[in-house]
Design a protein that fits this description.
Rossmann fold; 11-stranded mixed sheet; 14 strands
């Protein structure tokens, strides 16, 4: 009798709390029941399928609904990463190879919420040039963010030729007469899964923030632009990446670029496949190897294209016309983006070599370049040369994103990450590309003896800003320096350096110059 009363009391407690778990610890999602694990007070569910495996005839098709399973699916280990080649050993971004498979459309959830809660949801889209990476890298562990009060989701999406191959045959077989944007469609499918299922994890489907870095930020930028993602998220954070330059088109050679179909057809020819059927029959590792190593394969362009469906126009035009998903944004970049994205050997070593290189590149605008990026001796070359590359690839694009958002109804918050993470090579690397990620996730390497109190304070602050933004659309909160929304006149931005403080006019002379260069040479 006492045991029955205890079980009854436990059931009442579960009902009152709104806890989504059944008596055996399962949650119902699309496809069936899943169970996860609990560690450090946080429940995690890893390797949750959000679409059917894109294999066989589904290779190069839009993601299809999840295949249902029987019984309880144990979601206690990450799913396979999508096919890719590893970063070379010695790269700042190298990590031990993960298990890989074309069956890779999985996501991961971390939560401390109950099912009746309505916590803000943050969906992380990983970087890696749209050719590498996964949602399961240790840096993306969601424990700290979940403890801070959000439901954190990380996702996989198809990469390289699997995610971005366009081809005339694929366009013909598509009901939408489109091909090539499969990675974007995977991300949209994951966001649709969140809308349908996140309440079971205590998340609020009406309060979703997408965020990503590098190619993940390109992806966020694309999702803000595409009409197919309308209503699937409510705020966006872009860290070091956006598409505001010319883009390829599906069928036409435009913007000095070959069409996406033409590039895809050349890739198929290099693979020795005379049809999409033959290309689908090739093993995944052969296509990865071709993409990575073959001279023809290297010509393959991994980026979204204007296909009339996913992207009805170039992203810069969609924003300029006010047709994007008008949501608040945090956008920014790092002070030394290019130190890990170029090899030291690629930087000119002498003033003679430097002058020759930049004179060819900037032509009649060379005097303006010299004013913006002065270099008087060999010691100045790296800073000037890498600075121009940084602003071309990152600083200008993020400022453009902030400006175009501020032109609409929503607010934009611009930042620069200038803190130099402790590293044996920190003098050269500086605030390198992706170095802000461990601070955003508050996943600093506790084993690093060079970490200081400054690093931890910065991580606490950045995570707080990001979470506050996810909760309300405003990053500000108690105990934090006031972050002022971007406006074109004063151009405020938050400098995440050793001190967190608002500054104005981030690299204005340099970025204005790069903008003039692009208007003259690209448009």
């Amino acid at each position: 009798m006492r045991r029955n009363v205890t079980l009854f009391a436990f059931a009442i407690a579960l009902a009152i709390s709104g806890f989504a778990l059944s008596p055996n610890g399962t949650i119902k999602v699309d496809g069936g029941l899943i169970s996860g694990t609990t560690a450090d007070g946080v429940r995690s569910f890893k390797g949750v399928p959000f679409a059917a495996p894109p294999v066989g005839e589904l290779r190069w098709k839009a993601p299809q609904p999840v295949v249902a399973w029987q019984g309880v699916r144990q979601c206690d280990a990450f799913g396979s990463a999508c096919p890719q080649s590893s970063y070379p050993q010695g790269s700042m971004y190298y990590s031990p190879p993960e298990k890989m498979s074309e069956d890779c459309l999985y996501l991961n959830v971390w939560t401390t919420a109950n099912s009746g809660d309505k916590r803000p949801v943050m969906v992380w889209i990983h970087g890696g040039a749209l050719t590498r990476g996964s949602g399961s890298r240790p840096t993306y562990d969601g424990t700290a963010l979940a403890k801070k009060g959000v439901v954190l989701v990380t996702v996989n999406y198809r990469l390289g030729p699997f995610g971005y191959l366009a081809h005339p045959e694929l366009t013909s077989e598509s009901p939408q007469h489109s091909s090539g944007n499969y990675g974007v469609l995977d991300q949209i499918a994951a966001l649709k899964w969140v809308q349908k299922n996140i309440a079971a994890f205590g998340g609020d489907a009406k309060n979703v923030t997408i965020f990503g870095e590098s190619a993940g930020s390109w992806s966020v930028n694309t999702l803000v632009a595409t009409p197919l993602a309308r209503g699937l998220f409510h705020r966006a954070i872009g860290e070091s990446g956006a598409y505001f330059g010319p883009m390829p088109y599906l069928k036409e050679d435009r913007n000095k670029m070959a069409s996406a179909e033409k590039v895809g057809a050349a890739f198929a020819k290099a693979a020795g496949a005379d049809s999409i059927k033959a290309l689908r029959e090739l093993p995944a590792d052969k296509l990865v190897d071709l993409f990575t190593n073959d001279a023809e394969g290297k010509k393959f362009r991994t980026q979204p294209s204007v296909d009339g469906w996913v992207l009805p126009d170039e992203i810069r035009n969609i924003f300029a016309q006010g047709k994007h998903n008008d949501v608040p944004v945090i956008v920014g970049s790092n002070a030394n983006e290019m130190t890990t994205l170029t090899t030291p050997d690629s930087v000119p070593k002498t003033m003679e070599d430097y002058r020759k290189r930049v004179s060819m590149q900037y032509g009649e605008m060379i005097k303006e370049f010299d004013a913006a990026y002065p270099a008087n001796n060999d010691a100045d070359i790296a800073s000037a040369y890498l600075g121009a590359l940084r602003d071309t690839a990152f600083t200008l694009n993020m400022r453009t994103w902030a400006r175009m958002t501020a032109n609409g109804r929503s607010k934009a918050y611009l930042y620069s990450f200038s803190h130099v993470p402790p590293n044996p090579r920190s003098k050269y690397l500086g605030a390198y590309h992706a170095s802000e990620i461990p601070y955003v996730f508050n996943n600093l390497n506790r084993q690093n003896p060079l970490l200081t109190e400054t690093d931890q304070k910065l991580a606490d602050a950045m995570m707080s800003y990001w979470v506050n933004f996810a909760k309300t659309g405003d990053p500000n909160g108690p105990g934090l320096p006031k972050w002022v929304p971007y406006d074109r006149e004063s151009e405020p931005y938050m400098d995440f350096g050793d001190q967190v403080q608002v500054r104005n006019h981030l690299l204005k002379e340099q970025v204005d110059f790069i903008e003039r260069v692009q208007k003259r040479t690209l448009y």
